[in-house]
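Narrative of activities, Objective 1.

The group set out to show that a structural description can be obtained from nothing but a protein's sequence at a throughput compatible with the screening campaign. Below is one input-output pair from the validation batch, recorded exactly as produced.
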Amino acid sequence: MRPLYRNLFMLFGLLAIAFMFYKFDISWAKVQIAILGAGYYLPAMIGVWFFVYACNATAFQIIVNTTSSAQVLNAEAETERPDKLGFWRSYKLTVSGFAFSYTTPFGFGGLPYRIMELTNYVGKNRALASTVLYSTMHILSHFCLWTLAAVLLILFYTEKIDFWMGSVLALYFFVLAVVVYFFFAGYRNGMVLNVLAFLQKIPFLKRHANRLYEAKRASLEQMDINISYLHSRPKAFYSSLFFDAIGRVINAFEFYFIL
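Output recorded for this entry:
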């Protein structure tokens, strides 16, 4: 990424933080009292995120390095750089990527930032595929956390589950099964072209989707190759899912310390 773009991202982040402080409906004196009252729970709450981001960074590193090992099937992709992503660089991209996601509308800011930074190390196509893969893996790990919570609810609060709660749990597990099916179908066959094919059926988006397909067909096909390549490596696939899901579980300690 060019230094200018990186500095603009930094400026945006600083302005977002300043705006949040400005909009706080609380005096600085009350903030100081709250911080002092939190005691050692405050560094504990902040410290949790070191381990959360370490898990996220490990999952991201596994995905990037696995897609970087994918077979190159066309001449354009042969120019891609096969460099591996180190842990601390992955950690840096993870923290800064999530920071931009938290400070931009709908959480989309971190995606283009990661792609631009990652392109310098593994090339454009693999950067795109890796970022899309990690985003979907991050969503899937959230479903893993919800599933764990539902299982714990059933195990430890069985006597409190009435008809309505049981109906909600049954609906959840049905939705989970559908979501997992579509996720794994996308991982197995590639998801970029499938999503684009769906967009080509929508009236207002059809023309733009067709234009994108015609202009970037080779790159999109290479992205799907990288995505399906990860699924064909079960160890890498489930390792990345495991680490990201563990990060979700560790994140729950933040709420425990707050309470």
